[in-house]
């Protein structure tokens, strides 16, 4: 019989651009907490992608959204994801999968990450049927044109999108950045 191992926390890193975070992402984090003790939501700093929100803005928004979830840690990283994950106590990279169009890219990334670090594995979670069509990109496109994105992203994200696109914001309950 194998000796009883000491309790080891099961930690996953959910990395992405989150520009901005959507209910599709949030659903993945919430479901993953059924499997992992801790989930690190890691915002990728990728200068080439020319994000709408800065890394710090994205990190702050996500932190505010998960402020009541002690098992969600919000961080950001530069450089290779496998190098970042190796510095944490996680062994799993968590990714969400929507349509087959996500599959090819995700398959290549997971294979590349596995070849860079054989100790790490990628776990895919299928999108929630309510959010399979939700992507940060379409949210930004619709929001910029004044379309309704309520119900697809949290209210805080709706507000931040309106600010970025200089769209009218209701005067009451301003939400500052000091959280
Ligand atoms: P990236 O820029 O690295 O693709 P994203 O922020 O777009 O990062 O997404 C991070 C992860 O979340 C990716 O694995 C992506 O496929 C997944 N994801 C994005 N939107 C959804 C959604 N609506 N449902 C499930 N997974 C999603």
**Molecular shape:** globular
Q: What is the straight-line distance between the termini? A: 50 Å
The whole-number mean of residue pLDDT values reads 92
Strand order in the sheet with the most strands? 3-2-1-4-5
Largest pleated sheet: 5 strands, parallel
Strand content: 15-25%
Radius of gyration: 17 Å
Order of secondary-structure elements: EHEHEHEHEHH
Structural class based on helices, strands and sheet pairing? alpha/beta
How many helix segments?
6
User: Residue share in helices?
Assistant: 25-40%
Q: Which stretches are low in confidence, meaning pLDDT under 50 for 5 or more residues running?
A: none
Please provide the count of β strands: 5
Task: Identify the bound ligands.
Answer: adenosine-5'-diphosphate
Summarize the model shown.
This protein has six helices and five strands, in the order E-H-E-H-E-H-E-H-E-H-H. By secondary structure, the chain is α/β, with parallel strands linked by helices. The protein is globular, with a radius of gyration of 17 Å.
Could you explain how this protein is built, in words?
It contains 6 helices and 5 strands, in the order βαβαβαβαβαα. It has 179 residues and is an alpha/beta fold. It has a 5-stranded parallel sheet with strand order 3-2-1-4-5, with helices on both faces. Helix 1 links the parallel strand 1 (11-16) and strand 2 (38-44). The radius of gyration is 17 Å and the shape is globular. The structure holds adenosine-5'-diphosphate.
